[in-house]
Design goal:
Helix content is about 15%, strand content about 15%. Strands 1-2 form a two-stranded antiparallel ribbon.
Length: about 45
Amino acid sequence: MNRLSVGDPAPDFSLPDHLGILHTLSDRYRNQNVLLVFNIGFA
């Protein structure tokens, strides 16, 4: 996987929620704005 730079679009991905329902980024983005937060880790 290539590294992303600031301003690059996020790659499409799917993740389950706490109920096991699968959510895809592209499906969410069609209906509303999406904020992605990537934690690097805890220091």
